[in-house]
Amino acid sequence: MRRLPILATLVVGLAVAAMIALGLWQLRRAEWKEGLLASYRAARHEPALYGLPADLPIERAAFRRAHILCRISGAPVQVGGFGRGEQPGFRNILGCTLIDGRRIMADLGWSPPGVKPALPAIGQRIEGDGLLIPDEVLAKRVLGGAPGAVPLLIVLEGGAPGLSPSVAPSIETIPNNHRSYAVQWFLFAAVALIIYGLALWKRSRAR
C-alpha cells in the first residue's frame, strides 16, 4: 500500500476544511439576512415614530416612517439617485443632530445633474416626516466615526425647499446572495478534492 504524501495531504485537507467552514458560515449569514429582511418588512406596518427613541434597535426602526426634528451638523454629500419621476440625478444628504445629541443622516431631496442646490447651513433646524433607512456604508461617509453616530438615514417625504423628494431605497434592493456564495465555497472544496485525487492517481500510475 502506497503512503500518501503527508505534507501535501495536510495542506489540501486544511484548505478544503476552510472552504467548507466558509460555506457553512455563508449559510448562517443567509439565515440571518432572511430574518433581518423579514423584520424590515414587518416594520413597514408598525406605527410611525415621533422622534427616534434611544432604546429602539436599528432593525426595529428601519423602514418605519418617522417625524424627525434635528439640526444640520455636517457638510452635504451627494449620491446618485432618482427623483419621483425616475429622473437620474443626485440625492443631497447631510448629517443631522437630534435633540439628545445623536447624529443621523437626512436626505433632504433630489436635484438634477448640473444644479447646485442651496442647502441648509450648519445649525439650521430640519423637521419633517420621512422613511428611516439603515445604511452603515453611507453613515461612515457622511457621519464618520463621531460619537453618537447612528447609521440611519431619514428620506424626507416632502424634500427641503428647492429640492424634489428623493426615491427612498427599497427593501427589495437589499441583496441576499449568501446562499450562492455558500454553494461556490462547497464547489471550490469539491474541485480541490477532485484535483488532488487526480494528482494522487497520476502519481501512483507513474510509479
Shape: elongated
What structural class is derived from the secondary structure elements? alpha+beta
Number of helices: 4
Overall domain count: 2
The percentage helix is 25-40%
Question: How are strands sequenced across the largest beta sheet?
Answer: 2-4-5-7-6
Can you give a write-up of this model?
By secondary structure, this protein is α+β, with helices and mostly antiparallel strands. It has two domains: 6-36 and 177-206; 48-168, OB fold (Dihydrolipoamide Acetyltransferase, E2P) (Beta Barrel), CATH 2.40.50. It is built from four helices and seven strands. The chain has helices at 6-43, 58-61, 136-142, 178-206; strands at residues 49-50, 65-72, 77-82, 88-97, 103-111, 125-134, 149-156. A five-stranded mixed beta barrel has the order 2-4-5-7-6. Helix 1 runs antiparallel to helix 4 (178-206). It is elongated, with a radius of gyration of 25 Å. The mean pLDDT is 87. Keywords: Cell membrane, Membrane, Transmembrane, Transmembrane helix. This is SURF1-like protein. InterPro entries: Surf1/Shy1 (IPR002994).
Short key terms for the protein model shown above:
OB fold (Dihydrolipoamide Acetyltransferase, E2P); transmembrane helix; single chain; alpha+beta; 5-stranded mixed barrel
What topology emerges from the helices and strands here?
Elements lengths: L5 H38 L5 E2 L7 H4 L3 E8 L4 E6 L5 E10 L5 E9 L13 E10 L1 H7 L6 E8 L21 H29 L1
Parallel strand pairs: 1-2, 5-7
Antiparallel strand pairs: 2-4, 2-6, 3-4, 4-5, 6-7
Helix pairs in contact: 1-4
